[in-house]
Amino acid sequence: MDLYFFQIEPKDVFLFALSAIIGWLTSRYFSLREARHRELAYACESYIVLPRYLKNREDFSVLFQSERLGNPAKVELSIWNSGNTFLQPSDFATTPPIRVQFKGQRILSAQIMRVSRDLNGFSISGEGNVLDINFKS
Fold this sequence. Notes:
Layout lengths: L9 H24 L6 E9 L3 H4 L6 E3 L2 E3 L3 E9 L16 E4 L21 E5 L2 E5 L3
Antiparallel strand pairs: 1-4, 2-3, 5-7, 6-7
C-alpha cells in the first residue's frame, strides 16, 4: 500500500482563496439581483369604436342608456404586479384610492375584465372623468 503526501504550495492556497472569493461574490450578485420586490405596472390602450365614415352621419348614431354619443372609444387600462412577490393589501394606501383622470373624456361604464388572484380585494369605480382604483386592506 502506497501513501502519497502532497505538499501545498503558497500559490495553491492563493488560487483556492481567490476562487472561493470569486464564487462567493458571484452567488451574492445573483441573489441580490433576484431579491424580492413589488412593482405595480400598467398599460393603457384606446380603441376607436366608430369607423371614420360613420362619425358625422346624421342617419347613424350610437346610444348609451338613451344618450347619443359623439365619438365613443373603448379604453383598456391593465394593471399588474411586475415584481416577483405578492402584493399585499398593506402595500397600498386605503385612502385616498389610486385615481386616474381622463381629460376631456367621460367614463360611461367601468368594469373589471379579469383578476388573476382575488387576494387584495381589487375594485374600481368610475364617475365623470375619474376612475378610482381601490384595494381592500
